[in-house]
Zf-HC2 domain-containing protein (Marinomonas ostreistagni), 62 residues
Amino acid sequence: MMKCTEATQLLSEKMDRSLSSKEKINLGVHTAMCPACRQFGKQMLSLRKISQQYVNHKEGNN
């Protein structure tokens, strides 16, 4: 089974690249059973959204 360190690494990489089918399956199984990694993934998505909104806001003010 995938370790949390591997899962969080993939959750981070998922923001910048497409995961392989094997990575997606392993990550899906892990996050289905691990509430901490599931929460980490949600937080990563929230941070990305907030960052994009900030950049868009800054660009709109220039």
Summary: The chain has three helices and no strands.
